[in-house]
Amino acid sequence: MSTGMDEARAKLLEYRASIDNLDAALIHILAERFRCTKAVGALKAAYKMPAADPEREKQQIARLRRLADESRLDPDFAEKLLTFITREVIRHHEAIADQHSANNGG
Amino acid sequence: MSTGMDEARAKLLEYRASIDNLDAALIHILAERFRCTKAVGALKAAYKMPAADPEREKQQIARLRRLADESRLDPDFAEKLLTFITREVIRHHEAIADQHSANNGG
Question: How many domains does chain B contain in total?
């Protein structure tokens, strides 16, 4: 059983190498996504557009759930992830709005 | 100001197209990551390896924080994201372990 265990251990290291590569990809994609959402936040603050857009959010959720389903990811997990990311986006937008109104004297 | 507003609106749609593409990439990378972690779960269950590996987890957190920092993503957010994903991985592993012990008669 020792060879079997050695093989299992080697397989585990292979999977971990893939997980590490996928995690690096996740981080970089998220960094780029936040660059986009920060630009959106600055644009909305500059043009006094409403921060929230419920119709857009509904479409995003429906689309992500469909994509998740197609790629055999739990759609509930995909929706929870979007909520998790959106909370961070709102935090950034509030910071941008605060800075914007500070720059404009209050 | 109407032309400025039209341009702002057009820019917003451009950013949203990027966000949608990045979200699709996120979903597919996560789907592949869960394929890997499910395979790890099955391997660990089959070879009765311990489910948790605190040393590996410490390395993963440190690495993700470093990658986040390099790509100007908040390292705290990256760490929270890993925790969020890991909770889902544990849920999968428990399901795999339950199925494995059910297949082996309890």
Answer: 1
Residue B97, in any domain of the structure:
yes
Three-state DSSP state, B1: coil
Tell me the shortest Cα–Cα distance from B45 to chain A, in angstroms. 11
In a domain, B83, yes or no: yes
d(C-alpha B7, C-alpha A21), whole Å: 38
pTM metric for this prediction: 0.89
Distances in Å between the alpha carbon of B76 and those of B24, B69, B95? 24, 10, 29
**Is B27 domain-assigned?**
no
pLDDT attached to residue A82: 94
ipTM of the complex: 0.90
Report the residue from A19, A34, A68 with minimal CB separation from B36: A19
